[in-house]
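Researcher: Can you fold this with nicotinamide-adenine-dinucleotide in place?
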Amino acid sequence: MNDWSGRTAVITGAGSGIGRALAAACAARGMRLVLADLQRPALEETAELAGQADALLCITDVSDAQAVEVLAQRTFEATGDAALLFNNAGVLASGPAWKLSPQDWTWILGVNLMGVVHGIRSFVPRMREQGRAARVVNTASGAGLTAVPGGGAYCASKHAVVALSECLYHDLRMQACPIGVSVVCPSYVNTGIAASEQYRPAALHNDIPLKGPSEDRLDRTFRRAKLGANEVAQIVLQGIDDDAFYILPHPEIMGRVQARFGQIECGGPPQDIA
Ligand SMILES: NC(=O)c1ccc[n+]([C@@H]2O[C@H](COP(=O)([O-])OP(=O)(O)OC[C@H]3O[C@@H](n4cnc5c(N)ncnc54)[C@H](O)[C@@H]3O)[C@@H](O)[C@H]2O)c1
């Protein structure tokens, strides 16, 4: 088990939900924080909640490769270190696959998938150079192991993050590189994710608004979730301690994952979950 105290944790999407909880959990373990998100006030609130007034706060749109490169530069200039990289920022939009617009796809894949890609591209070479224990922790979802109606873009992005994390693991092992990888696949967590639309850039707004479940209905689903962000953050840090690759805060989703593989084996259609 690595002792991460005194080392640096970089967290994207740190202004809310799971990212904020990860910040508090890492600070409680004596880590220095580099917090990235779209809005400074949210980051300031996270730093305060984590009790780390001198955390490095970086306004970063993770869908922008150059912005993530600047995040990596600033991290290494300020702390010379990135021990834990949490590629956590993510957004949600849902609707029937044929109704998701090109803007929906660009936004969801840009944040949820390309945000992780950019994090890997900007940080892993620097983590390799530093020659110390380090780990990339990507937030996927249970939606990266199963698929649900309306989840065309979201599930595609999260399946891609699971596959990307597995490939990254292989790539690092092939080069005998001592950087660990984990992929976190939670089911519903009580966070603000139902209000993701507020983070959609103006250039990617739909001419005709997407008709998925209303924000209110989604919000009630997430707010009723059994696990809160703090509990998920503790499970994630325990998974890191255990050198776990797949971290499933809701092990009960395995029934649906196994049912999916059963259907793949027998050539059946996706399990009916309606
Ligand atoms: N809440 C759940 O039930 C759940 C379940 C499975 C997976 N997840 C995943 O967990 C991660 C965290 O989500 P959450 O539930 O804490 O949601 P949240 O909405 O509470 O937090 C997401 C954060 O990401 C930030 N963000 C959005 N777009 C960004 C961008 N382009 N660049 C940088 N930051 C951006 C937001 O400002 C926000 O602070 C996401 O990847 C999400 O897909 C959430």
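Model: Folded with nicotinamide-adenine-dinucleotide in place. Residues 12-13, 15-19, 37-38, 42, 60-63, 88-91, 111, 139, 141, 186, 188-189, 191-193, 196, 199, 222, 225, 229 surround nicotinamide-adenine-dinucleotide (CB under 6 Å).
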